[in-house]
Design goal:
Helices cover 19% and strands 34% of the residues. By secondary structure, it is of the alpha+beta class. The relative contact order is 0.11.
Length: 447
């Protein structure tokens, strides 16, 4: 039984890698992704034929591999990436979900979306230009989102005669900057996406480099986000109460385990009420099991008849998060309309949605130099800043540094349901936590 559980945990956490790509305009990011898909034999014949046809119609002799990822017509016409493109591919060693994110400043929000679930980020740099503002911006976003692994892909090495000093200087500058932001692991790889050097196959032109190719690193990097090792959290999505002749007393709480593992007989606390009970049973795929772990979808039955409803959080009694109505967080504003102090919003955290008000926006982050612009009053599209939100009802919120699943939330426009802002509770960068502003009472709202 134990071996089976360990094997299942291993399958659920180590054979799938979610990663995102980011880079400045014309750094060759889409070409890198296309080369990765092409050389790893992850492109269907008809897809490759379509790319070859489109390339020939443009007068290009070789197929433009960037067309494998730039799917929108506007992207192809302008030669840029606008929206996040998700690609799924696999090698014998690992399965991959790739989020190809845009490089433009005005699409910072798209990069945040793509990198929010990534365990690794590939940041591309043009070897001729070195580390530029947008490179620092991408490193900062990766650090804010607590992406555990960052790969610096120094591209277009063929255009600098595969010179080792050029690569070394760029790698040293980027590594120092990213490390200062608290990025835990940085790997630098010299590549030529166009020529295929060090993408899937080792380069014959850079014998001075002894590290892995991009694909080799993606296949072997440890997926350290292991959800089973995190604080156990179970957001209740649905209450199952059949009240049938066959199941007259059945009461189960269904949902997806956000992190950690739960066992039958374990003492748990239901939040935000704080009521305690023990797990009487766990049902998975129609069968009773003794243990379940993230990210399984299960139904948990409790020994006591406590009041539990959608939006409640079940956690171990000795490891429950603090309940609060004052949320201090780093946010990325994703809507076209601004977010202002005093604005009424809905806050969605896991399966729970509550009314809230924006009490303060202490600062806006200038990603170019990481300086704080104090008291901006509002955040506009693509802005990253600090906010203080007061909620109508208590929330069981973890710090984002402890759990990306239960430390994140969305702010939503109550009028039309538009997503306004993506939030990460707690300190911003891992290197230095900044103090949040204290919330003040607001006479207009009675919570």
């Amino acid at each position: 039984m134990t071996t089976h559980i360990q094997h299942a945990e291993q399958l659920s956490t180590t054979t799938l890698l979610r990663f995102a790509t980011a880079g400045s305009v014309d750094d060759g990011k889409s070409t890198l992704v296309g080369r990765l898909l092409h050389d790893s034999k992850s492109v269907l014949t008809d897809q490759l034929e379509a790319v070859e046809h489109a390339s020939r119609s443009r007068g290009q002799e070789a197929p433009d591999l960037a067309l494998l990822t730039d799917g929108l017509r506007a992207e192809r016409e302008q030669g840029i990436t606008i929206d996040v493109a998700y690609r799924y591919f696999a090698t014998p060693r690992r399965r991959f979900i790739l989020a190809d994110t845009p490089g433009h400043v005005q699409y910072t929000r798209n990069m945040v979306t793509g990198a929010s679930t990534a365990e690794l980020a590939v940041v591309l740099v043009d070897a001729r230009n070195g580390v530029v503002e947008q490179t620092r911006r991408h490193a900062a976003v990766a650090a804010l989102l607590r992406v555990p692994h960052v790969v610096l892909a120094v591209n277009k090495m063929d255009l600098v005669d595969y010179a080792e000093p050029v690569f070394a200087a760029i790698a040293e500058e980027f590594t120092a900057y990213a490390a200062s932001l608290g990025v835990p692991e940085i790997t630098a790889i010299p590549i030529s996406a166009l020529a295929g050097d060090n993408v899937v196959e080792p380069s014959a032109h850079m014998d001075w480099y002894g590290g892995p190719t991009v694909l080799e690193h993606l296949e072997t990097v440890p997926v350290s986000h292991d959800l089973t090792a995190c604080h156990a959290r179970f957001p209740v999505q649905y209450v199952i109460r059949p009240q049938t002749a066959e199941h007259p007393d059945y009461r189960g709480y269904a949902g997806q385990i956000a992190a950690g593992a739960f066992r039958v007989g374990e003492a748990v606390t239901v939040l935000p009420s704080g009521r305690t009970s023990t797990i009487a049973g766990i049902d998975a795929l129609g069968e009773s099991v003794d243990i379940a772990w993230a990210p399984q979808s299960v139904t948990i039955r409790l020994a006591d008849d406590v009041d539990v409803s959608r939006g409640d959080l079940i956690a171990p009694a000795d490891d429950a998060p603090a309940v609060t109505r004052d949320v201090e967080a780093t946010v990325c504003h994703v809507a076209d309309q601004p977010l202002s102090v005093g604005q009424r919003v809905l806050l969605k955290h896991t399966t729970r949605t509550v009314k809230a008000i924006v009490k303060d926006i202490p600062s806006r982050l200038t990603l170019d130099d990481l300086s704080q612009h104090p008291a901006p009053g509002q955040l506009v599209a693509n802005d990253i800043g600090r906010v203080v939100v007061r909620t109508a009802e208590p929330l069981a919120l973890d710090a984002y540094a402890d759990s990306r699943r239960t430390g994140s939330f969305l702010l939503i426009d109550p009028a039309d349901g538009t997503t306004l802002t993506a939030g990460m509770a707690g300190a911003s960068f891992a290197a230095a936590a900044e103090p949040g502003a204290a919330a003040t009472d607001d006479a207009e709202w009675d919570f």
